[in-house]
Amino acid sequence: MRRSFEELIGSELDQLYRAALFLVGGRTEQAERLLTAVALSAHREYASLEDEPERPGRWLLERLASTALHAETQSNSMSSATGVAPSPTGDVAVDSSPETSSLPRQLHLDHVAAEASGLPLRTRIAFWFAVIERRRYSDIGEILDEPPSSVAHRIRVGHRVIVHGISRSRARRERGRPG
């Protein structure tokens, strides 16, 4: 039996919100706007589908990434037309702590999100789908409309920046501790 859209999105809301926070650099208000836009567009699309998507979480996350990319494109075209640059990223406050496989085991998502907030959106999307969602580069390439080699490059760059930033943060914390 096909679930209502409300049941479908309700079961995936936590994951979508964590992803939205990650993609927008931890800015709560922006994550909520992104999530609202995704819910509206997914609701319209869901109404036209004959069957429920086989993997609803995946289906919704792909719409989240597409909506974020579309919003960034609109923001960039507006800022170039007005001469006003987009606002800088804020602090990250992600209320989640799943581990990621390619980073140290004790590392939590909030540490990764804090370091990833300065990366370009496409790199954050690639990193999220590869490391957190464990998606294939070819799948991510379809979402970003890029070849898998570009996705791999984005993930390598993101990984390098994030690990370097986390290492610096740990070193600062350790220096601040009394010996």
Question: What is the element layout, followed by pairings?
Answer:
Blueprint: H1 5-23, H2 28-48, H3 56-82, H4 109-116, H5 121-132, H6 137-144, H7 148-176
Helix pairs in contact: 1-2, 1-3, 2-3, 4-7, 5-6, 5-7, 6-7
CATH structural class: Mainly Alpha
* CA-CA gap between termini: 62 Å
CATH level 3 topology: Butyryl-CoA Dehydrogenase, subunit A, domain 3
CATH architecture: Up-down Bundle
What composes the largest sheet?
Answer: none
Give the low-confidence spans.
78-106
Q: Give the topology string: H per helix, E per strand.
A: HHHHHHH
Measured on Cα atoms, how large is the radius of gyration? 17 Å
Question: What's the total helix number?
Answer: 7
Summed over residues and divided by their number, the pLDDT gives a mean of 80
CATH superfamily: PhyR, sigma-like (SL) domain
Textual characterization of the structure:
This protein is mostly helical. The protein has a single domain, classed as PhyR, sigma-like (SL) domain (Butyryl-CoA Dehydrogenase, subunit A, domain 3, Up-down Bundle). 69% of the residues lie in helices and 0% in strands. The model is unreliable at 78-106 (pLDDT under 50).
